[in-house]
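In response to reviewer comment 3 from the previous cycle, which asked for concrete evidence that the modeling workflow produces usable outputs, we include below a single protein chain processed end to end. The sequence was submitted unchanged, and the resulting structure tokens are shown without manual editing.
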Amino acid sequence: MGYRVAVVGATGNVGREMLNILAEREFPVDEIVALASRKSLGTECSFGEKTLRTLDLEGFDFTGWDIAFFAIGSDATKKYAPVAAKAGCVVIDNSSLYRYDPEVPLIVPEVNPDAVEGFARKHIIANPNCSTAQMVVALKPLHDRARIKRVVVATYQSVSGTGKEAMDELWNQTKGIYVPGQEVEPKVYPKQIAFNVIPHIDSFMEDGFTREEWKMVAETKKIVDPAIKVVATCVRVPVFVGHSEAVSVEFEDFLDEEEAREILREAPGVLVVDKREPGGYITPIDCVGEYATYVSRIRQDPTVDNGLLFWVVSDNLRKGAALNAVQIAELLGRRVLKKG
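The workflow returned the following structure tokens.
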């Protein structure tokens, strides 16, 4: 016996990826529905060998449905997620709306699976920010061994994190550079993204940090350990898919780089690719379409006591969003719903 599953926002980048991953991982589905806004009504979406036509989210009755994956913005989620939850459908939400709600578990299954039991308070589970998800998968096994005191991270985030319009803007600006008369002015981003980097993701806060940087701090504390100090600089780069991070970690206890490498090799969801030679590391283009969080360039930090440096790369549409959501559903099924 399988589940009745709804994918809300099925026409977007993340929604389509959720459908792909549900099919790839053979999630036990008895019935599945693709939901979207009225303007996308009837749009075709693929689910394995099946073709789904989107239905109108407005007025959809979630009664009798087991799980709803939400891949829409916070405003629409605020309107429709409580409706689904009230009908008894468990919402797995990819927006930022519920991530910081103390009554809603924020889950990365490799890191804090026990938190799934907290879904019952609101019938909602939050999916973390894409940049946080991949980082904490690498941090948690190291934290268990040597206790992390402080994390300093610089991110190199692809344009797919902003959505399809951003991917189109990068493509069109790149073409425009080579074709006179076809230059494209920035619309999605405040500056040109093609052949450039932008140290600004989400809105600025009063302290000078952006909300994206704040999210990494708050979510790491909620998922891993509130005692960890985190500071981030988040940068948008001209890459279509795949987020990268340069991570500096200071531990309470000494952790040798060789031991760290072995710990990460055994860690769930992590693949270590770390050869000290040209090409002996993972880049964003290598991770597209993959499930794993890749760790490379592991080395001691000589500037602090008990420090390590490493490079983390993952497909942000997968582990950073859709894959993590499906893994939450799998965890929910094993621990709570117990169907399939």
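Residues 3-128+321-337 form a domain with the Rossmann fold fold (CATH 3.40.50.720). We consider this sufficient to address the reviewer's concern, and the full set will be provided in the supplementary archive.
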